[in-house]
Amino acid sequence: MNGMKASFFLAWKYLSFNKLRTTILIACVTLVGALPLSLNLLLSASERELMARAETTPLVVGAKGSDLDLAINSLYFTTVPPEPITMAEVTQIQTSGLAIAIPLHTQFQARNFPIIGTTLDYLDLRQLTVAAGRNFSILGETVLGADVAATLNLKPGDTLVSSPESVFDFGGVYPLKMNVVGVLEKSYTADDNAVFVDIKTAWVIQGLGHGHQDLAQPEDSDVVLEQNDNVVTANANLTQYNQIDADNLASFHFHGSTDTFPLTAVIAVPQDDKSAAILRGRYEVSEASSQIIQPASVIEELLLEIFKVRNILNLVFVLVSVATVVALILVFNLSLRLRQREMETNFKLGCCRSMIIRLVTAEIATILVVSLGCSLVITAGTGVFKDRITRTMLS
Amino acid sequence: MEQSADIQPVVELTNLEFQYDRGEFHIKLPNLIIHRGQKVAMIGASGTGKTTLLHLIAGIRTPLAGKIQVSDVSMNQLSDSARRQFRISHIGFVFQDFELVEYLNVFDNILHAYRLNPSLQLDEAVKSRARELAAQLGIVDKLKRSVKALSQGERQRVAICRALLPQPQLILADEATGNLDPDNKQRILDILFRYVDEQPSTLLAVTHDYELLERFDRVIDLKTVMAIAPALSETTQSVASPLAQKRQEETV
Predict the structure, then answer these.
(1) Inter-chain residue contact A2 with B113, CB threshold 8 Å
(2) Searching chain B, which residue's CA lies closest to the CA of residue A19?
(3) In what order do the strands lie in the sheet with A99-104?
(4) Do A207 and A142 form a contact (C-beta atoms < 8 A)?
(5) Mutate which of A12, A348, A356 to test chain B, going by most B C-beta atoms within 10 A?
(6) Is the peptide bond before B166 cis (omega within 30 degrees of 0)?
(7) Choosing among B52, B84, B171, which should be mutated to test the A contact, i.e. which has the most A CBs within 10 A?
(8) What is the ipTM of this complex?
(9) Cα–chain center distance at A183
């Protein structure tokens, strides 16, 4: 027992004296231990997180094409929006009584954050609550995700201008200065990085709706080129509004039926499983120009691919671990050579034969125990914060 | 010749032969006796085998032939493990280059031998004795210091403390004063001699410091010892005390 205690005492003294070498060794072993465990925890949490968002989005209707693009765009607003469908899909689903239809319009951005044109039902579906201000209620109002507000340093009362689709798109949409009326509570989801507006505001940004001076009583009569019954033709001098406020709100209007207006997707929240089955059946017919997907199934398929990546990662970790063990053996071997004189002195003093082995064993054991402790602390820390980490990464 | 208890042999070498595996160096020593309580200096030109002879006496190396008796124990007949155990508990070795462990502080260096072999039990009494020794050698205020922060003289005193702590019956000093200034050389000898007198113990010191030889009881010229007949195997070059004279007469 005394011999063991002495071995650990000397090992500890040696390791403490050679702090840099010891720190590097412990860091290497810790990483080898903690990385696979922590990454596996994070991967599992990511999978759960991805599935959770997908599972709370029962059905999504969108243009025919890649179901993965449609799912990812509807859930995370990250990919290029799929081909548009029309507002008629929403009307059709609503009137069927099978599901609540929530329109999504994700085509535009404001300072690199996606503008999500939708209804208040979306905020209810995602259980998003307002941390400051209020929800959007009229045209031109916006509610910001928590990270958007933090990044752009915006609060209720400020304004945010939508970005043109292209700097050189002179004939394209005009930027709209939106009024920030609320900031959402942080949700650690993609919603934190989104700018929410009413679907009609998104159409205004798209140029489908606009507001301008009253042509019945224009300030400058020269702007009216022709007037036949109810049809008034104006020239380019007609003032169009790029911000919606109380004074000009009434002047905003849409030309044509909103049923023909574009959407990126429709989230359908069915009344029950039967309604879901019926609704899915309706889109299965080959003539339908739209498709209906179950995001949970799509994401599950995606995760199966990620599982393959995880296997590759695990293999890499095994190889790295083997390389680290070989490096450790080399380091200890070199260390013993450097300590040859000390070992000779010990021998001359009368050190027992097994002591050298016990000293090296104690050193290795100390490094392994400390590294194991550090690995456990890192892994435990990852375990505690895994949800927050994955949500932050995914959002 | 009948010998009294205080002049019993502590080291007795008979027909000793040694050769390294490689090289032509060899030792042939017909007979050498060192008595209890003696302070013996061993001199000789470099390469004559002084350090090797100390290693043979300590059991660090084993001879090809002959007999090595230390304190009535035949070192030849001991196993390697028993020789290590005997060495650490009965022999105090002071090395030329001190050979302190740089990652241990002064106090832990003094106690080092007790952590190397379970045959020495490290307890509070030993620690207390280590502090007393350090106090006697004037380094008690430096016990917590790193040995790298000590002067040569202080490092040598730490090495001596380490050698003396197990209260050895035989002290082997290999050029223990070699790297020291004249004052420190005298001080180190004072310390070793005082210990030998108080314990009592025996000192066999290899040295090149001829100005110190007069302080020893006996001086052995290794070259002469290996060359002459067994009956005349001890040569006293200088005798500093009446006791040394008496012992030399008795031994011869």
Answers:
(1) no
(2) B103
(3) A99-104, A265-270, A59-63, A290-293
(4) no
(5) A348
(6) no
(7) B84
(8) 0.80
(9) 18
